[in-house]
Amino acid sequence: MSTQPETMANHWWWRPGWRPGRRFYTWHFTFQGAAEVHRLAETYRKGLAEVQGLDLVPDRWLHLTMQGLGFVDEVPEKEARAIVDAATARLRAVPAFHLLLDRPDITPEAIRWEASPSRQPADVRTAIRAAIADVWPQVPETAHGFAPHVSIAYSNSRGPVAPVAEALGRVEAEPARAHIDSVELIVLNRDHRMYEWERFAKVPLG
Fold this sequence. Notes:
The protein is of the alpha+beta class. Helices cover 26% and strands 31% of the residues. Helix 2 (77-90) crosses helix 3.
């Protein structure tokens, strides 16, 4: 479990390159149809509903971030499609698997589940990075430091951690398992204090 921060911070500051209206290609696991995950998420949304300063993530936008590709206005669509083709070939060798989500941790900007096991998501990410390298001479983002996680809430202001920790401590819920049999390249935006997207491509595992 990660060390609990002393204060919350605003997650929605504009990171380098981002601005309203800009879109970003990124690879994610998404959780459409993941009934156990939705059940667990709803339990925590109810538990956190009265805590000020949080944006709770609805089922539709639950995700596990895998690997960024680049801003849509900087990545030619033809190259994005070539990377999808390369990923489709490489991910045939990576079998589907299950992820477990249990009790979420508090980070300065989010409340999130650390997904376990971590090896299988890392294997998918490695295959995606190899697919990018099939098309581009350099792969964006670093190969190391990947920590697969799913956020249930984002902090939208600076404030104390105690109310969040107290609310989480009152939640009782059985862990959730999710069957992961595909990964998606999505077109992401963060215009409305939420990560929202349209699917660009869906690639099966195995």
